[in-house]
Every structure is written in C-alpha cells, then in structure tokens.
Design brief:
Strand order of the largest sheet: 2-3-15-12-17-10-7-4
Distance between the termini: 47 Å
Largest sheet: 8 strands, mixed
Number of helices: 6
C-alpha cells in the first residue's frame, strides 16, 4: 500500500481505536427478504415496507436477500476488482484521481482527518455527472465528472457498468419501499435522482500490521440518500448500535446486500430514520474487498424535511440546504487533513 511504511498518519486517537475483544457479531441487524417485490400482492408489499421502516428506525441498517441482482454480475465485478488492486501501485496510478478529477484510483483518503487503511477506485453512474464546483454559496460554477478506466483487466469497465445497472435498479426499489414506509407515495423521491450524483466505489483493504491502531475507514455517517454494500466473507464493517452506542460487527451473509440510510433520508424523514455511524476494521491476516454504491440525488436538490411529515406537533427539525454545496464541502477533507471537522447535517438543525 505504501512504499516506505510510516504508520503515524493511520493511527486513530485512543478513544476511537478498535477493541477487537469487545466486538459483538450483529445477529440483530435485520435480514429482510425482498421476494415479495415479485408479487402483485399489495398487502405483502405493505408488510415489506413496514419491515424496512422498522429497520430504518431502530438500526439505520439492514441486509436484503432475494434482491434480484444476478449473482453472475456480482462475481464478475468481484473478479476484476481483485485483478485491478493486485497490480503494482505504479500501474494503478495510471488512473489516479486528483482534485480536478475525483474519479479513479486513490490510496490517501482521510475520514475525520485520519488516513484510512484502504485503496479505492471510484466511478460515477451518469456520464458526465454534474456537480457544484465550489462549496461557496454565491459560486454558481458547475463541474463535470468523467470516469477514467484502466486498460487492465480488459473487461473491467464492462463488468463495472453491468453491475451498476443492476444495483441502481435495486436502489430505486429500496427507495420506494422506504417512501411507502413513511406513508408517502412509492415514487415520492424518484425525481430527485433524475440527474443523480451517485457513484460506485471499489474498496480494497490490504493486510494491516497495526490492526489495533488503524481503521479501514474511520467512524462516519454517509452523506447521501442510500448506500447499498456488497462485502466479501472477511467482514469488518461495524455499526454503532443506537440503543447503547456499542460497536457491532455485521456478519457477512452470502449473496446479501447491506443497506443503510444516509443523511438525506434522515432529513427527508425529519429524524424518523437516522443515518447511523459506522466504520471498517482491518486485520493482519486477510485482505478484504467491498463494493458500496452511493445513491445520491441531483446536485441542485434542495434537501429539507418532507412537507407531509411536518406539522405543528412535529415541526421541521432542519433548515433547507443544497445537496451540491453540501457534498462539495464534505469532499474537501477527502484529500487533505483539515484543521476543522467537515460539514455535517447537524449544522442545519433548527434550534428548539
């Protein structure tokens, strides 16, 4: 991962270091069967939506099976992911991202201003994807994101794009179920994703000689709408349980996807559902691979509590904010260590 190993950038502060001895396997994170989506039984779909709503309220996370994503699709992207990251840093750096083009390969990302023990490859769904060029409120400039694809492995792009089409279909189904669970029409949120800023990430967590000091990804909440994650059998994802703040390991389930609501759904639901803190452990014996899909709306989306969920007894808990500006400010800290915490949704909380 690093040619001359210097561990100092990766070391978490004492209170955030992993405690492998106290980890609990999360039998409690709901495992939800989506096969009812194939039926025309409205009662079964309403029941499924209620199950997902319960998981969003209690955990902010759930796993899904019988989701409709072909296993072959997942196996193809898994294969090209392993081949790509198995190359030398020099080869991977041919498609290295930078501040002008944040798509491609990168191995220096920071979370909460501490470097993550991982390498990534990012690509957007919509080409080009249009985003805000600057977090400054008065700056109307936009920028276009384009993907860059490696020459090796030769079927890399094809496998990635095929998988993305399938995971996008699943994400819309999940979004509609979440909408129904809030008592809203199924397609309530769909139009926000018309010019989506979604992207897919290939994660590689090499074996780590200091797993008691470093994290693959430090504690964080996802900023966007939904995250749909494929992880291998190694495991390492931990979720902060809402009931007691304990870090809970998510046990890998074969051919399941792990889903979590992001900050946007927390705001849309007016805090009925919560974007929950999570992190990724590393280990010294096995490398780990995962593939999160970040389902995010158009840059011009104004994020605020949905009108139907706000009333005199339950007033809006957030001021409206622009998604493009919000994510532009968040992205600043991915490239460099900042002296301040990056922007969070609580900065838009209405005062009581």
């Amino acid at each position: 991962m690093v040619e001359v190993f210097d561990s100092s950038a990766f070391i978490q502060s004492i209170e955030h270091r992993p405690k492998p001895t106290s980890t609990v396997e999360a039998e409690g994170i709901p495992l939800i069967d989506l096969s009812a989506l194939n039926s025309s039984d409205t009662g079964a779909i309403a029941s499924l939506a209620a199950e997902i709503g319960d998981a969003c309220a209690k955990w902010g996370f759930f796993q899904v099976i019988n989701h409709g994503v072909p296993l072959e699709c997942r196996e193809k992207i898994d294969s090209v992911q392993r081949k790509f990251f198995g190359q030398s840093v020099e080869e991977k750096s041919r498609v290295r991202r930078d501040e002008l083009n944040p798509m491609g390969y990168y191995d220096g990302e920071h979370t909460k201003n501490v470097r993550d023990w991982k390498e990534v490859f990012d690509f957007v769904v919509e080409v080009p994807t249009i985003i805000a060029a600057s977090p400054e409120p008065g700056n109307k400039e936009l920028t276009m994101l384009h993907n860059q694809w490696p020459e090796f492995p030769p079927n890399f792009r094809e496998a990635c794009e095929e998988y993305t089409r399938e995971i996008e279909k699943l994400s819309y189904k999940l979004l509609e179920l979440i909408s129904l669970s809030l008592g809203l029409p199924a397609n309530k949120f769909n139009n926000f994703f018309k010019d989506q800023t979604s992207f897919l990430r290939l994660n590689y967590y090499p074996r780590c000689p200091i797993p008691h000091l470093a994290l693959g990804v430090g504690r964080h909440k996802d900023a966007g709408g939904l995250t749909v994650l494929s992880q291998d059998d190694v495991g390492g994802l931990e979720v902060k349980r809402k009931s007691d703040g304990e870090w809970i390991r998510v046990k890998p389930t074969p051919d399941a996807y792990i889903v979590n609501v992001g900050d946007i759904i927390q705001v849309w639901s007016n805090d009925k559902y919560e974007s929950v803190e999570h992190r990724v452990m590393v280990n010294s014996e096995r490398e780990r691979f995962s593939i999160p899909f970040f389902f995010n709306p158009a840059h011009y989306t104004v994020v605020e509590p949905v009108a139907e969920l706000v009333n005199e007894q339950n007033p809006a808990k957030y001021k409206a904010f622009n998604w493009g500006k919000f994510v532009s400010a968040r992205n600043l800290s991915n490239f460099k260590k900042l002296q301040v915490e990056n922007i969070q949704i609580y900065h838009f909380k209405e005062s009581d």
